[in-house]
Amino acid sequence: MVEKIDHIGVAVKSIAEARKFWEGVLGIKMTDEEVVAEQKVKVAFLPVGESEVELLESTEPDGPIAKFIETKGEGIQHVAFRVKNLEAVLEELKAKGVRLIDEKPRYGAGGAKIAFVHPKATLGTLVELCERD
Ligand SMILES: C[C@@H](C(=O)O)C(=O)SCCNC(=O)CCNC(=O)[C@H](O)C(C)(C)COP(=O)(O)OP(=O)(O)OC[C@H]1O[C@@H](n2cnc3c(N)ncnc32)[C@H](O)[C@@H]1OP(=O)(O)O
Ligand SMILES: [Co+2]
């Protein structure tokens, strides 16, 4: 079902500020920023080997990243797994009675198809499923 870790989503107050550590200190080159309006975020990726770190900055005070930082502070917000056929995986999870946040694929950064599984169904980790070419 799961091919690999596609990315690890990290909530930050400011991508510009976070860049100083991820790029400046660790030397990982950051991609251009993209706004994903539906998720109320601005994102930038840091490719590392087969996977990436996704920096997420909120664009709205009521978005999921703003709420996460308010209650838990900056840090890892989700883990995204790469899948081949997202619709089929969602059907399978639904059949298993897993609580989904998204029953249908939504738009993800870079044109991916994404869907989130509720952290209550995973014992505390917000899981994103992600299909991309
Ligand atoms: C651009 C895209 C991409 O990759 O392409 C992205 O990644 S967008 C990434 C940003 N977008 C998203 O995260 C969209 C999906 N997320 C959501 O729908 C929401 O953030 C939820 C995960 C449902 C949480 O919403 P909200 O905080 O309003 O719910 P809530 O207050 O009822 O919290 C329900 C319970 O989940 C816990 N909880 C909340 N956020 C959590 C997180 N990130 N990881 C683990 N647990 C989490 C709370 O502590 C609470 O537990 P207790 O009850 O025990 O206190
Ligand atoms: Co993500």
Automatic annotation (TrEMBL):
One of its GO terms (molecular function) is methylmalonyl-CoA epimerase activity. Belongs to the methylmalonyl-CoA epimerase family. It comes from Formimonas warabiya. Pfam families: Glyoxalase_4. One of its GO terms (biological process) is L-methylmalonyl-CoA metabolic process. InterPro entries: Glyas_Bleomycin-R_OHBP_Dase, MeMalonyl-CoA_epimerase, MMCE/EMCE_epimerase, VOC_core. Residues 4-132 form the VOC domain. Keywords: Coiled coil, Metal-binding. This is Methylmalonyl-CoA epimerase. CDD domains: MMCE. Residues 76-103 form a coiled coil.
